[in-house]
Amino acid sequence: MAEEKPEGMKQLFVYEHDASRLELFIRIVYAFVIMLVLAVYGVIAEICMLIQWFVILILGHRNEGLSDFIKGYLEYYVHVVSYVYWMTDDRPAIFPEKVEIYEKK
User: Fold this and answer.
1) Quick one: which of 44, 104, 105, 29 has its CA closest to 74?
2) How many helices (H) and strands (E) does the chain have?
3) Which of 23, 73, 99, 101 could cross-link with 89 by S-S, CB 3.0 to 4.6 Å?
4) What letter would DSSP give residue 13?
5) Torsion sign, CA atoms 89, 93, 79, 29
6) pLDDT tens digit sequence for 24-77
7) C-alpha distances in angstroms, 105 versus 6, 36, 102?
8) What is the pTM for the complete model shown?
9) CB-based contact 99:93 (threshold 8 Å)
10) How far apart are CA 53 and CA 61, in angstroms?
11) Which residues, 6 or more positions from 55, have their beta carbon under 8 angstroms from its beta carbon?
12) How far apart are CA 55 and CA 90, in angstroms?
C-alpha cells in the first residue's frame, strides 16, 4: 500500500531512472556556482553559530534572527544537495529560496 504524500510536498531524494546528458554538462558549471554560494553562505552561518553560542552562554536563550539565518543555510544545503550529487535533473535556484524541511516520525 503506497503512502499518500501531503499536497504541495516533494520528496527530495528519490531514484530517477532517466537522466539528461546535456544537463550533466550544464551541471558542471551550475553546481560550481551553487557550491560557491553555499560556501559563502556557510561561512556566514558559522559566524552566526559562534555569535549564537555566546548569546546562549551570556543570556541563556537563543537569538531568533541568528537561528533563522542558520536554519536558512541548512534548508538551502538540503535543497540543493540532491542536484549537486546527481540525484535529480531538477535545477534548483542559485540563490536560496524559502523551503521547509520536516522529519517524518
Assistant:
1) 44
2) 2, 0
3) 23
4) S
5) positive
6) 788 888 889 999 999 999 999 999 999 999 999 999 999 999 999 999 999 899
7) 14, 34, 9
8) 0.75
9) no
10) 10
11) 61, 62, 63, 66
12) 39
Q: Alpha-carbon distance 62 to 72, whole Å?
A: 16
Is there a contact between 59 and 82 (Cβ–Cβ < 8 Å)? Answer: no
Cα separation, 95 vs 105, whole angstroms: 30
Query: In this structure, what C-alpha cell is assigned to residue 16?
Result: 530517477
The x, y and z cell numbers of residue 85, run together, are 550529487
Please give the Cα distance from 102 to 24 (Å, whole number).
29
Q: Where are the domains of the chain?
A: 37-94
